[in-house]
Write a structure and sequence with these properties.
762 residues, alpha+beta, Phosphoribosyl-aminoimidazole Synthetase, Chain A, domain 2, seven-stranded mixed beta sheet, six-stranded mixed beta sheet, 30 strands, 34% helix
Length: 762
């Protein structure tokens, strides 16, 4: 057995007298990992085998730095059909309908090639959904870029948004929500997280298993090319450094029209019962799809590399097995059903080729042709189940106690007068419609509440008939790097709280959560401390909310020049609306409504947008009272569901000041609030801009006010009546005064004005 295209795996070559690193090091494997592979095989691996282990044991595929911590998430509930470990989580939403949901990252590819990085991120997450048997019906895109005054960051932002819209609009799936954040921590390392949701009849659920000896492995979709080779190991498993533009060939190239055909062909195959198991081809390409499906069923597989359709001449076996070319699926098919499979794929003009056969014994073998030379022979399970598991050192930063002790005051020199609070509020305001207006968010006519709201609301239709069930799905995407940089554990818990409160604002109860854990270099003990703490905080909050984590993604090595990004766990939470006949109120104030804050406030500015805008990054975010947040969320949800409020908006980034400003702007109605010693409100920057968790602002008609206040008192929830909406100014005590016209102009023009000022870094 050999790989004729390669030298021995441990050889060292020289060029001009300078020794190259050993092959395993060049492929991203450590000396210890290379030795482990030799022990597993009982011999030295050849080049092809080494490349296969390299991509499968990469950080992106194996989670070798994070697996020891991920098991702390709560993952089970009676309604969970599929939890972490499959292509997507799946939950039962009643009426024999299941919902599949998944979030992924395409951070590194998007930094190098923004359009294709984002586009193929969309393509990959869509395949994760229909691989389970679900029809994708909604996308969300939590995005984070460097500051708007940085030319390269603007170039990346425009490219990413174009990539999301170009692929999503073309494949015919609406992008219904997300986030857009600009901050210096993401200057060299943007975060491009993508989420997809699909629905299906529960009986159509299928898993990634290559069951049945003698069954065929059929490759569906695009031909295999050289784009994306090494994408996982080269891009997602290493820090950025100077010269990374040379890694552009590692970025995959997407074809949304091929993806659309692939969706329809795959779902047709599943409906016809022609597929035993199925897996999409993403990270690590054919190596991943063949080894995982085989080992998931405790089987092996023989793969004929000559049968893989190739769109470029003279591709080596290494290239074929590690290419991450897009729009490809691997289906496991009974031999006598192959003709039926080909009839459907031909009808949808989808290429299909039988490239392998399922075997017993658990060995993955790669042949140069049928009955030909064995190019690789490895136990399938060793490629992922035996991947290294690292308990990397973790330690808090040395100055942690000092940082936590330096609580930001109300101003730069101790008083609220030292900062123009109206100007501080204006600096936080930004209309993100420039982004989401480029997305089609009304495809399928399911979108009841779209981008720009606390949460998205989708109409739930029967996937068999298209009939309206009368129920709805809520979706919220949330993250906050400032909170998590202040205290990863408390900050991550606050992110979950915000997501649940956003769902409550549209009348949805939380059902399931997926997360994307974006962190720096795991070889830095501080980063591992951040990751571990964030997992603990998120887990505690999810348990309090009875909210299972059904899937997720870990994105590490988000670093450049040795500088790690601020820890940025992002969550997308699915909620259920049992009766969609009630009109979701939105956040717009109406004239003459009484504005009430539900929930207690812990004054403090640590980790707040206000403090960071002033350069004050010390202090520790308040520990969220999770039980209280549960109560406030449930009360808010019930008030919305029963149409007892005219508007609802959670308090999060920017504190009460920003929440009220957004509500005033949405309704074109002002508000004047008295504050001071004789009121429950502190007339300080901390009082208006503090971001403690678990508060909801509601606008209430006079005839419902007493009912709302009484219900809050009954369950022990604090309330503050701010006053009646009206006028053309937002006046918050003596601290903040802004004219609505100025607020609107600043909010509307900021983002398009910045992006039109020059978008390409020279």
């Amino acid at each position: 057995m050999s790989d004729p295209s390669s030298q021995a795996a441990s050889d060292v070559e020289t060029h001009g007298g300078a020794p190259d690193p050993p092959l395993h090091q060049a492929l991203g494997l450590t000396d210890e990992e290379f030795a482990q592979i030799g022990d597993l095989l009982g011999r030295q691996p050849n080049h092809l085998e080494l490349a296969m282990y390299s991509v499968m044991w990469s950080e992106h595929c194996s989670y070798k730095s994070s697996r020891v911590h991920l098991g702390r998430f709560p993952t089970e509930a009676p309604w969970v059909l599929v939890g972490p470990g499959e292509n997507a989580g799946v939950v039962d939403v009643g009426d024999d309908i299941a919902v599949a949901l998944r979030i992924e990252s395409h951070n590194h590819p998007s930094a190098i090639e923004p359009y294709q990085g984002a586009a193929t991120g969309i393509g990959g997450i869509v395949r994760d959904i229909f691989t389970m048997g679900a029809r994708p019906i909604a996308l969300m895109d939590p995005l984070r870029f460097g500051p708007l005054d940085d030319a390269r960051s603007r170039w990346i932002a425009e490219g990413v948004v174009s990539g999301v819209s170009g692929y999503g609009n073309s494949v015919g799936i609406p992008t219904v929500g997300g986030e857009v954040v600009f901050d210096e921590t993401f200057t060299e390392n943007p975060l491009v997280n993508v989420f997809c949701l699909g629905i299906m009849p529960t009986e159509r659920l299928v898993l990634a298993k290559a069951s049945g000896e003698g069954n065929l492995a059929v490759l569906l979709g695009n031909s295999t090319g050289r784009d994306g080779i090494g994408g996982v190991s080269v891009l997602a498993s290493a820090e950025f450094a100077d010269g990374d533009e040379a890694k552009r060939p590692s970025v995959q190239v997407g074809d949304p029209f091929e993806e659309k055909r692939l969706i329809e062909a795959t779902l047709a195959l599943l409906d016809a019962g022609l597929v035993v198991g199925i897996q999409d081809l993403g990270g690590a390409g054919l190596t991943c799809a063949t080894s995982e499906t085989a080992s998931n069923a405790n089987m092996g597989m023989d793969v004929d590399v000559s049968m893989v359709p190739q769109r470029e001449p003279n591709m080596s076996p290494v290239e074929v097995l590690t290419s991450e070319s897009q729009e490809r699926m691997l289906a496991i098919v009974e031999p006598h059903r192959l003709d039926d499979v080909l009839a459907i794929t031909d009808a949808w003009e989808v290429q299909a080729s039988a490239i392998g056969v399922v075997t017993d014994g658990g060995v993955l073998r790669v042949f140069d042709q049928a009955g030909g030379e064995v190019l690789a022979e490895v136990p399938a399970a060793t490629l992922h189940e035996d991947a290294p598991l690292y308990r990397r050192p973790l330690a808090p930063p040395e100055d942690l106690e000092e940082r936590w002790a330096s609580e930001p005051g109300d101003g730069l020199s101790g008083g609220s007068d030292s900062v123009d609070q109206g100007a501080a509020l204006l600096a936080m305001m930004m209309d993100t419609s420039w982004v989401y207006s480029q997305y089609d968010h009304q495809l399928f006519l399911n979108t009841v509440v779209g981008p720009g709201s606390d949460a998205t609301v989708l109409r739930l239709r029967d996937p068999r008939t298209g009939a309206d069930t009368g129920r709805g799905l809520g979706l919220s995407a949330d993250g906050n790097h400032r909170w998590c940089a202040s205290d990863p554990e408390r900050g991550a818990a606050m992110v979950v709280c915000e997501s649940v409160m956003n769902l409550a604002a549209v009348g949805a109860r939380p059902l399931a959560l997926v997360n994307c854990l974006n962190f720096g270099n795991p070889e830095h003990p501080e980063v591992m401390w951040q990751l571990s703490g964030a997992i603990d905080g998120m887990s505690a909050a999810c348990r309090e909310f009875n909210l299972p984590v059904v899937g997720g993604n870990v994105s590490l090595y988000n670093s450049s020049g040795g500088r790690d990004i601020d820890p940025t766990p992002v969550v997308t939470t699915l909620g259920m609306i049992d009766d969609l006949t009630a009109v979701t109120p939105g956040m717009a104030l109406t004239e003459g409504a009484t504005v009430v804050v539900l929930g207690s406030f812990v004054e403090g500015l640590a980790g707040s947008r206000w403090a960071w805008d002033q350069g004050l990054k010390g202090g520790r975010v308040p520990d969220p009272d999770l039980a209280s947040v549960v109560d406030v969320a449930e009360l808010s949800r019930s008030l919305v569901a029963e149409s007892l409020v005219l508007a609802a908006h959670d308090v999060s980034e920017g504190g009460l000041a920003l929440a009220l400003a957004e509500m005033a702007l949405a309704g074109e109605v002002g508000l004047e609030v008295s504050a001071g010693a004789d009121t429950p409100l502190a007339d300080t920057a901390g009082g208006w801009f503090g971001e403690s968790a678990g508060r909801m602002v509601v606008a209430v008609a006079s005839e419902h006010l007493n009912d709302v206040l009484d219900r809050a008192e009954t369950v022990g929830i604090a309330t503050v009546v701010l006053g009646e909406s009206g006028g053309s100014n937002l006046r918050l005590g003596t601290t903040v005064t802004v004219d609505l016209d100025a607020l609107r102009d600043n909010w509307r023009d900021r983002l398009p004005g910045a992006l039109s000022s020059g978008n390409l870094a020279e």
